[in-house]
Amino acid sequence: MSAINEIASLWMEGTMRTLDAFRSGFGATMDDPTPATRSRVIYESGLVRLRHYEARGENKKRVPLLLIYSLIKRPFILDLQPGRSVVEYLVKQGFDVYLIDWIPPRAGDKNHGFDDYVNVDIANAVRAIQVYTGIEQISILGYCFGALLGLIYSALHSGNVKNLVTLTIPLDTSVRQLPIEHLTAAMTSRSAKTIVDMYGNAPAWMIYSFFNTLAPTHHMLDKFVGAYRTNSKRPAYIDTFRLFEQWLHSDVPMAGRIFLETSEMWRENSLMKGTMKVGGKIADLTRIAMPLLNVIGDHDDIVNPRSSEPLPELVSSDDKQNLHYPTGHMGAAISADSLKRLWPQITTWLSARDD
Amino acid sequence: MARNEDTARSILNSTDSTFSDEILKLAQTLMPEPPTAKVKRMVAEIADKGLDRQLHEIGWKAYDTVIGAANNATNRVFTSPAIGNVLGTTIDMMLRWQRLNAAIAGAFFSALWPAVGLPSSTEVEGLRSDVRAMREELRDAVAERDSKDDFASELHIAVRESIVNQQAGEKLVARTTNGHAATEIDPASIPVAKKTSVYQFSVWSGWPGADPMENGEDVGN
User: Fold this and answer.
1) Helical (H) or strand (E) element with A297
2) Which of B67, B180, B207, B213 to mutate to probe the A interface, most A CBs <10 Å?
3) Contact B163 A124 (CB under 8 A)
4) What is the pLDDT of residues B157-175, one digit of tens each?
């Protein structure tokens, strides 16, 4: 009976959390949990807030590492809790880590598109790092949609990027296997335009609902049962579960213009085809000549591994590779296994290209 | 159990029986033991025989099977092209109706609410958004005030100068990267910063021990 009581209690807590998020809004900077790793905001402009996490240990790396996270959720998943933090791991390995902490777009930011995000916000952040460190070329590590932004930046500003790591990048949008791919394809350009006309930005609740619709059983029941079962084996797990839940409810709106542009890019598969224009220029992936590590989660049900796989074929780098790892979309960031086995491979790859 | 038997006996002994008493007598004859007690006794017997662990595992296996089947069914629904088409049309129609309704309601109530002294939902939403933005700005301002770091403002100036220089058309030479030959970049090909919004610098103060407001402990949405 205690199992049912505990699961019911977790379910009730989760339901209240969801209802509260719908009532009062989803992600906001001020609602982030206490970070695991200390940081300092060194630059802020437009919709970018740049955090610096200072390298620790004796084996400090020379090249700064810029993390670019997705636009639709808060990035604290990368620094969830001590011992379960990608950022903490990287700084312990001697990397000076910089994180783009996207400022959620407000009503007045609805015209923020790829051009503003890539050529203004990321470009300014990179420039700030260059001035701050005195080092001209940096490494970029992008996650999911952040990987897409990092890739486009690297194509348009290749001289500033020494190494590029893309993690679970949604690239080939012609792949139609996963439910998310079919659901995205079902949305017409007219629907996307209606959303922007009505709301200005794509609302956070809509983004949250979209992702939850994909796995209703999981979100309504199974994740709570799973939390109970895992917690019975690892008693501290419930804290991680609560933080993860907080992150799941941390959706932020997507600026209207980039929502429309992304929707168009998805339909046309334009980045993959080499026809996507950003700021009037083609985001030509063949201009990417720096070393590239493309990390793919084999069990990813948000970004199809097949969608990420073609990337090395599209760039002109001599030093390029796909790194497959048996993990899911978020498991790459928070699973204990990924932190033990995947991230050491990424840091080894970066360290070998640090000179 | 004893109390139940006593009660039953007293009812059986009663001479002044009613219809409900007769029903109760019949039920007790057919089911001499209450169901919960029976279940408890059965579970205890299973536990004594060491079968509870097996039962537990079978229960979770059954649960996993049901959840797996439900997930498969959901995936099949979403990956069906026919359902995708219906879904796409439905989403489109719903959004258009919602837009029309919002426009009609807006036109009607925008005149009505002020007349009775109430704000419209758009106004409330706007105010909520403003309050949220102000709280974010306050947070930044507090952090900035607390910052004693002169380097931040120096960096701000340096970055701004760098952007201004670039806008002036200064030639930039691409850096040699990892053995690749350096190429000259046409400044016109580099998109320049188009915004000169206020640059702010602050020191993260969300560390334990800082103002609890920074940690969102006493601040709702």
Assistant:
1) strand A292-297
2) B180
3) yes
4) 677 666 666 655 543 333 3
